[in-house]
Design a protein that fits this description.
Elements (H helix, E strand, L loop, with lengths): L6 H5 L2 H15 L3 E6 L4 H4 L4 E3 L1 H10 L5 E5 L2 H10 L5 E3 L8 H4 L3 H13 L6 E6 L4 H9 L3 E3 L4 H9 L4 E5 L2 H10 L7 E4 L10 H6 L2 E4 L11 H10 L4 E4 L5 H4 L4 E2 L2 H10 L5 E5 L2 H10 L4 E4 L9 H4 L3 H9 L11 H16 L2
Parallel strand pairs: 1-2, 1-3, 3-4, 5-6, 5-7, 7-9, 8-9, 10-11, 10-12, 12-13
Length: about 350
């Protein structure tokens, strides 16, 4: 797909673009709402009517029934979820349609269906429910809805696990093996009860005997941003700043989250930083734009990226620019919408609504 905003927007100054967005907001009033994920650029996030993590924004999309135009500054799967939860009179717009998610792409629906068929053949699916992370395609969310499962975000993953284990013996979680593993450990599961399904290997690379013993089957997927952080980074930052607080996202690997002072979603990280006293030193293991925005918002604290060198940027979140947002805001009536087919939407809505009920 090729995408580029018209030249006049690319040549405009930031002040001109900000004015264009604000003027559009004034014209449309409550008919337009701008949702911005925490990982968006500072200048884009500052124009959001609501800035939050996946859970907050999904909930907002479901509640803002008076907004005819939902402008979602995030990535494709988030806009899809907003469309699934939206009313028939609403249109969801993604300012940069090239903003995808490599993690979501790791769980291709054909691979998931193949895995499910194999698990069905060995008699496990009758006692198993699927759980998909929000970072997944609409068709995968629909699969979960159809099979009695649900969706989770990093904010409510523990509650989603409880929902599943109250109803089934096994949980099949995709696509992030690190979040899935971490939550499994926090829920009291041992390593003997957790296996990782490698979609690149025949039959997942797991023997039927191991699968039958497993209570948690994880899809082999990851976030390239959060796997940059290592346990050695935590050790090094503690040597440099003995009084430092380390807070990380649960998409990091277990050896990192196990050594952190606090672990949680982007909203959790924002709230955690806000609660620290003036003068606090806080090393953060998550996407760089959120870290920079927190440093900007709390100049009385030393807030910095945990590794000190990787510059963990989500390139897809970073795709959305002020020019993209201004072009979208000034062309709401004609801008291409994100539209999930009705058949997929109905099943995916079941899974998302279950998610909204178990926070």
């Amino acid at each position: 797909m090729y995408f580029a905003v018209p030249q006049k927007y690319r040549q405009a100054t930031d002040d001109e673009l900000i004015t264009a967005v604000r003027d559009a907001k004034s014209r449309y009033g409550t008919r337009m709402i701008i949702l911005a994920h925490h990982y968006q650029r500072l200048e884009v996030a500052q124009l959001g009517d609501i800035v939050g993590d996946s859970y907050e924004l999904s909930k907002s999309a479901a509640q803002k029934k008076d907004a005819e135009f939902i402008v979602f500054c995030g990535v494709h799967f988030m806009a899809e979820s907003a469309d699934i939860l939206s009313a028939p009179n609403q249109r969801v717009l993604l300012p940069n349609p090239l903003a995808g998610c490599p993690m979501a792409d790791m769980a291709d629906i054909d691979d998931v269906l193949s895995a499910w068929e194999h698990l069905e053949e060995i008699g496990l699916t009758k006692s198993m429910l699927p759980l998909s992370y929000m970072n997944s395609a609409a068709v995968l969310k629909a699969f979960c809805g159809k099979k009695g499962g649900l969706i989770c975000t990093s904010s409510n993953a523990k509650a989603a696990y409880k929902y599943v284990y109250d109803r089934a013996e096994r949980l099949f979680f995709f696509p992030d093996e690190n979040l899935g593993y971490n939550v499994g450990r926090w829920m009291g599961l041992s390593d003997d009860e957790i296996v990782v399904w490698d979609f690149r290997s025949e039959l997942g690379g797991i023997s039927p005997e191991k699968l039958r013993r497993a209570k948690l089957i994880l899809w082999k997927g990851h976030c390239h941003v959060h796997t940059n952080f290592k346990a050695a980074h935590v050790a090094e930052v503690r040597r440099t700043y003995p009084d430092v607080k380390v807070v990380v996202h649960p998409e990091c690997t277990w050896d990192v989250v196990d050594k952190a002072d606090a672990v949680g979603s982007t909203k959790f990280i924002v709230d955690y930083i806000s609660r620290q006293p003036a003068g606090a030193k806080i090393a953060v293991g998550t996407e760089i734009n959120l870290i920079n925005r927190m440093a900007h918002a709390h100049p009385d604290k030393k807030i910095f990226e945990l590794s000190g060198q990787t510059c963990p940027v989500c390139a897809n979140m970073y795709r959305t620019t002020l020019a993209d947002l201004a072009f979208t805001a000034e062309n709401l009536e004609t801008y291409q919408t994100i539209s999930v087919p009705e058949g997929i939407k109905a099943d995916a809505r079941l899974a998302l609504n279950r998610m909204l009920e178990v926070y």
